[in-house]
Give the backbone structure.
Amino acid sequence: MKKFLLKLLGAYIVAAVTGILLFHSPGYSRQYLKEYGHEHERYHKTSKNEEYVKYIERPNLHHADDRMLADVAFMKEYQARPAFQAEKSRMFRYSMYFKALNSIVFLVLMWRGLHKTVTDFLDKSITEMRAGLIDAEKARKEAQQAKAAAQGKMDQWAPFQEQLNKNTDAAINTDLAAIRNELDAAKSQLAKETEDRKQAEVYRAARLLREELVTQAMTTLEQRYRTEATQERLTDDVGKFVRLMDRLS
């Protein structure tokens, strides 16, 4: 930017010097004032006179005396001189030249500033767009990698699931077999315990019956021993008692 401003300043100086060489100065030249100084001073005073200005603008509304008419005639004659016209044309070209030069410099500065601003904005936008594209490409690659990894895991899941189902079924079958065995063992144990309880009850009933029969037999034998005195009867009863005891035992 600094180099650009220096170049622009150099070009402006060259163009200004060229304009001065071509059109000299913005005002009346020294040579013209030297040659027409007195008349030009009268022209200047008359052009600033309010009465003259009002008369020139609206001659029908303002009265002009002999002096005013003389000033009007002088002004017309002075402004119609070729030297005056050439001087006015030179000053006009000088003014237009430097207005154009200043406008061009201003437009160049504006263009440079706007161009740099727009260029910086576009560069920034392009950089951001590139960064966004890079991020999007990176995200796309990461998504593809994640998809591939997920697909690989899904591919590995099918045999793993099959093996898992087999292992689960085998474990369930083993547990069911163990449960069945335990159930069968429990049933056998229950049947055995029931049978043992039945056998114990039978033994208990038989023992009670035996005790009751022995008691009755003893009572009957005792009564018969008391009532029947024959030796043969007693021997016969004792034999029956012994045989009964053998049966019960």
About this structure: Residues 142 and 187 are 63 Å apart (CA to CA). Helices lie at 2-23, 30-48, 50-57, 66-79, 82-227, 231-248.
